[in-house]
Amino acid sequence: MRISLVVTTRNRATQLAESLSQWQKLEVPDGSWELVVVDNGSTDSTRAVLDAHTSLLPLTVVTEPTIGAGGAHNAGWKASRGEVVAFVDDDCYPAPDFLSAVLRRFDEGPEIGFVGGRVLLHDPDDYPITIQTSLEHREFLPGQFLHPGIIHGANVSFRRSTLEAISGYDPRLGPGTPFSGDDVDAQCRALTAGFIGAYDPRVLVYHHHRRRGEREIRRLKRKYDVGRGAYYARQIVFVPSLRYEYARNWYWQIRAHPWKRTFREFQGAAHYLIRRALRIS
Fold first, then answer.
1. Among candidate residues 152, 175, 207, the one where a domain is terminated
2. Tens digits of pLDDT across the chain (281 residues)
3. How many other CB atoms are found less than 10 A from the CB of residue 46?
4. Is the dihedral of CA 230, 170, 8, 26 positive or negative?
5. Within 13 Å of residue 31, how many CA atoms lie on the same side as its CB?
6. Cα torsion 171, 172, 173, 178: sign
7. Residue 135, C-beta contacts closer than 8 angstroms, at least 6 positions apart
8. Residue 242 burial (C-beta neighbours within 10 Å; 0-12, 13-18, 19+)
9. How many angstroms separate the CA atoms of 199 and 180, rounded?
């Protein structure tokens, strides 16, 4: 099997039902594909929604009761069979040619370990956040500083061999844990392991996140600040080869952004390091 599409979900049955209907529109690339949905401890009608779609999609359902996107992503890709594993969120609608576009980029670069792409708003009335609109093709080299948000977790694909080499995602990170950033951390570790990353605007998904209220947006941005601090702390403290590059880039960003954002990043960094020291998962 050439490609697997992996999605994690928790207590978003209504949104998931809409997404499953959209995923039926995916064009099948050369060879077969599969959809693996990880139910990450849902207590709503998520399972009933999934059961209703088992005859409509090449669907495998995986249950991961431990809450956290990093661990759920690991459960998904380990249960999948594709040579390439594509990840999107449960509120995202891939373009019909999404699977083909992912495979095309990997075929164009045998050295590429992971690929990201555009994330556009599905509903123009939603707040323009958690999107990536760049039309510029980019490559990321081993050891290069990788800024959070360049490649979104809502549209990132890995070769299976890359995921195996880096032992997948860090289960300490991701939505459902105190820190976001399981996606960018996995990309960074792939670069550290010697793989090359790519951003290709031809790989497209539409994000239907439904966020519009100012309070909700502020809360989300604060979570990203905390997760960003954890991400920087991890690379600076635990990856000696990246220490200088990440410390230098973080310093220049701190000089450019508001002190409240810096404070939250430092909070996230300290919280992450304390949890690591106490071996709290």
1. 207
2. 899 999 999 999 999 999 999 999 999 877 789 999 999 999 999 999 999 999 999 999 999 999 999 999 999 999 999 999 999 999 999 999 999 999 999 999 999 999 999 999 999 999 999 999 999 999 999 999 999 999 999 999 999 999 999 999 999 999 999 999 999 999 999 999 999 999 999 999 999 999 999 999 999 999 999 999 999 999 999 999 999 999 999 999 999 999 999 999 999 999 999 999 998 87
3. 23
4. positive
5. 13
6. positive
7. 118, 201
8. buried
9. 21
**Beta partners for residue 177, in sequence order:** 175
Single-letter code of the amino acid located at 11: N
Two structure tokens written together for 200: 């290709």
Q: Does 225 lie in the same domain as 192?
A: no
In DSSP notation, 179-246 reads ---HHHHHHHHHHHTT-EEEEEEEEEEEE------HHHHHHHHHHHHHHHHHHHHHHHHH-GGGHHHH
Domain boundary among 207, 236, 265: 207
Task: Tell me the three state secondary structure of residue 170.
Answer: coil
Asked if 171 and 136 sit in the same domain, the reply is yes
Length, in residues, of the chain:
281
Which is nearest to 175 in space by CA: 7, 34, 3, 22?
7
Cβ(172)–Cβ(70) below 8 Å? yes
**Which two tokens mark 268?**
């996230």
Segments forming the whole domain that contains residue 112: 3-207
Do 239 and 145 sit in the same domain of this protein?
no
